[in-house]
Amino acid sequence: MDSVRSDRRIPIALKILIAGGFGVGKTTLVGAVSEIRPLQTEEVLSTASEETDDITGVESKTTTTVAMDFGRITINDDLQVYLFGTPGQDRFWFLWDELAFGALGAVVLADTRRLADCFPSVDYFETRNTPFVVGVNCFDGAQRFSVESVRSALDLDPDVPVLLCDARDRQSGKELLIALVEHVAARRGDPVPAA
Question: CA angle, corner 34, sides to 31 and 37, nearest 5?
């Protein structure tokens, strides 16, 4: 029997992390930009977590990611982007090293109502020299701050891109991912195409 030949190539896969504090919109962002129904490991918040999960500022939150979120974006036949949303609470940080392995970089989502919650994510990526951008998720009713105010509050290096975003909006999410890829290319010294 003749073997069946396939001229199909296996696409290159890029891995991007979506990180940030509890309730910042990581699951929402992955769901907004993924072309497939995202894998979500959401569980209902219970009374058992009351002592460990601070819901100040996100009192309406009823679920939490306990492992990861996963989504996919096909750029073309040769390139696919895999999105991995990290859990936000410290008790799940043991998963981060596995999720971060092989990642191109990360999007750190920030909520100005709870800005300190993104410090662990920023520290994680700075310590590992992993390229990242910060997306300030502009929640309805939250006070708006300038990009420079957020940059200063987080004490970010001047080359770290900071963008205002809406994690619910597909186009806004895509802009974050594009900013990350351009940031990675610039750090590597690769030419960045003009917009």
Answer: 70
